[in-house]
């Protein structure tokens, strides 16, 4: 059994071929897609975060709106770039969205992906020491993880406007249990091990920033195992969660075929990213019977408890609901995911 959700990058463009021609379009359609996904039995609505781009960028108003319109589905991000974040303000926003949703927030965070602008975090007011922006992201993350636990740390004013409770003051509001629902988007085996040591869940996408020559799904399965070993060695209680992302398009009608026939022979790709080799996972497109055979051999999907389906959001809500429904109806039962 797996949790199956969608991951939307929230692209928008004024092109007449796009169903999302403005930021308002993509925001309202993101909410509508989450509501519809819950109605057909999907388990999660996740949103990518990019700055300086015609994509979703400010996740917490959207997550709060989705939380208010739904009742069961998990809501989350995949991922928030921590180089850009004020961790205390983020803690307030995250707790607020989580409380509105009734504790359904699954927050994916990370060092972030290659940026649209040069050192964009600098425009947000953050400059890393010695130029180490990855260390700055980890520092922001550490502070965020500490303050969302609800412990007091701020010295109260002896003459406040309103009476204070005794002792040091925490960030408010506090949402109990949120700390256990934080995920780290890891692009390598080493960062997955770090996530396990920190006691965060693991979020792994269709990109790994390394290449060992083995198929993508096998390298990702090794990443997952190293994460779980690191979690256990660190002495964290319970079992961590793991999600993987995939582009999966069952071809069940002529519209599907028109959109995705080019992906029916997709393969892994190897390229350069941030000055090093990277391996990109293939897309899965084809007749349901063939996809069942191919997906059954994907070792990383087998190792994960959560599968996030990347959706072509510019094709509109109705078509993306069709894609999700096709996976839930034609693939999930045959693969034992349902």
Automatic annotation (TrEMBL):
GO molecular function, one term: oxidoreductase activity, acting on paired donors, with incorporation or reduction of molecular oxygen
Superkingdom field: Bacteria
Luciferase-like domain ranges (all copies): 9-258
Keyword Metal-binding among UniProt keywords: no
UniProt-listed Pfam families: Bac_luciferase
One cellular-component annotation, GO: cytosol
UniProt keyword annotations, A-Z: Monooxygenase, Oxidoreductase
Matches recorded under PANTHER family: BLL6902 PROTEIN, LUCIFERASE-LIKE MONOOXYGENASE
Name assigned to this protein: Alkanesulfonate monooxygenase SsuD/methylene tetrahydromethanopterin reductase-like flavin-dependent oxidoreductase (Luciferase family)
Species of origin: Allobranchiibius huperziae
């Amino acid at each position: 059994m797996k949790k199956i959700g969608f991951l939307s990058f929230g692209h928008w463009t004024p092109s007449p071929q796009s169903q999302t021609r403005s930021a308002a379009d993509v925001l309202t359609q993101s909410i509508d897609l989450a509501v519809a996904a819950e109605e057909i039995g999907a388990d999660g609505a996740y949103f990518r975060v990019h700055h300086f781009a015609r994509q979703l960028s400010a996740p917490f108003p959207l997550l709060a709106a989705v939380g208010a319109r739904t009742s069961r589905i998990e809501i989350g991000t995949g991922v928030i770039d921590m180089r850009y974040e004020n961790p205390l303000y983020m803690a307030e926003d995250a707790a607020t969205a989580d409380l509105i949703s009734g504790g359904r927030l699954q927050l994916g965070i990370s060092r972030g992906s290659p940026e649209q602008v040069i050192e964009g975090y600098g425009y947000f007011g953050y400059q890393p020491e010695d130029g180490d922006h990855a260390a700055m992201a980890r520092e922001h993350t550490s502070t965020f993880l500490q303050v969302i636990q609800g412990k007091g740390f701020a010295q109260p004013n002896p003459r406040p406007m309103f009476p204070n409770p005794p002792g040091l003051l925490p960030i408010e509001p506090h949402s109990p249990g949120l700390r256990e629902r934080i995920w780290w988007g890891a692009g390598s085996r080493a960062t997955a091990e770090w996530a396990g040591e920190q006691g965060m869940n693991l979020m792994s996408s269709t990109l790994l920033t390394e290449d060992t020559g083995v198929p993508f799904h096998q390298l990702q399965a090794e990443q997952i195992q190293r994460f779980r070993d690191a979690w256990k060695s660190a002495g964290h209680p319970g079992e961590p969660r793991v999600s993987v992302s995939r582009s999966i398009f069952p071809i069940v009608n002529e519209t599907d075929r028109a959109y995705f026939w080019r992906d029916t022979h997709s393969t892994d790709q190897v390229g350069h990213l941030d000055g090093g080799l990277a391996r990109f996972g293939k897309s899965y497109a084809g007749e349901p019977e063939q996809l069942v055979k191919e997906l059954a051999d994907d070792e990383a999907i087998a190792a994960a408890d959560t599968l996030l389906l990347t959706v072509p959001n510019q094709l509109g809500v109705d078509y993306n609901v069709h894609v999700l429904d096709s996976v839930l109806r034609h693939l999930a039962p045959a693969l034992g995911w349902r």
